[in-house]
Amino acid sequence: MAGEGKSASELFEELQASVRAATEGDRSESALVERALDAALTDDLEERAWALVTLGGVLSVLGHFDQALDALRTAIRTTRSNESRVAALITAAAIRCDQGEFEDAARIGVVIENNTGDAHLLRLLGQVFLRTADLAGSEALQAQGRRCLERAALEEAFANA
Predict the structure, then answer these.
(1) Which of 19, 64, 108, 124 would bridge 93 by S-S if both were Cys, CB 3.0 to 4.6 A apart?
(2) DSSP class of residue 79?
(3) Stretch among 9-18, 76-85, 91-100 having the lowest mean pLDDT
(4) Residues whose CB falls within 8 Å of the CB of residue 155, separated by 6 or more in sequence, listed in order
(5) Calpha distance 72→40 (Å, rounded)
(6) Is the CB of residue 121 less than 8 Å from the CB of residue 158?
(7) pLDDT of res. 2
(8) Of 1, 5, 10, 3, nearest to 118 (Cα)?
(9) Spans of all domains in the chain
(10) Which pTM value belongs to this model?
(11) What is the dihedral of CA 142, 144, 147, 149, to 10 degrees?
């Protein structure tokens, strides 16, 4: 099963690599979406959740933000694992940033922060929020980014103690 024995950050990096690989080359949008949908039709609920997260990532790269968010919502309802839930939430937060919905992205960031202790993911999320805050002039995202980075430092300190 996907995700077995891996950290949330390793799973998220695999998701990023999967989306990058799916969008490279001469593939058409419909072929990419069809491939991701086929993967989402598995009987295994956890595999389906990860396929839906990947589908959400592919759709967002192609600019289909509403459909991407629908896939991510379905992934969150489908999964029982915290790792795929966090990956879906991170992808949703990035989409909301792309849509200019910065306060909604910050609210999603709070949910992510409360659902992971993975310092790498928290740092990644914090950096994304800070960069987006600089571009958008969003104080909410700037505060969320700082909180994520502070939490990442605390998680690392605890892990190394």
Answers:
(1) 108
(2) -
(3) 9-18
(4) 117, 118, 119, 122
(5) 12
(6) no
(7) 45
(8) 10
(9) 8-160
(10) 0.71
(11) -70
Average pLDDT over the chain reads 79
> Which residues are within 8 A (CB) of 11 and not within 5 positions of it... i.e. 6 or more apart?
2, 3, 50, 83, 84, 87
Alpha helices in 28-137 (DSSP H): 29-40, 45-61, 65-78, 82-98, 102-115, 119-136
Distance of CA 113 to the CA centre of its chain: 12
The DSSP 8-state label assigned to residue 24 in this structure reads S
Q: What percent of the chain has pLDDT over 70?
A: 73
* Residue position matching structure tokens 């990035």: 94
Q: Tell the burial category of 35 from Cβ atoms under 10 Å away from its Cβ (0-12, 13-18, 19+).
A: middle
Q: How many residues make up the chain in this entry? A: 161
The topology (CATH level 3) of 8-160 is 1.25.40
Supply the DSSP string of 55-69, one letter for each residue.
HHHHHHHTT-HHHHH
Most distant CA pair in the chain: distance in Å? Answer: 50
Tell me the three state secondary structure of residue 138: coil
d(CA 49, CA 98): 23
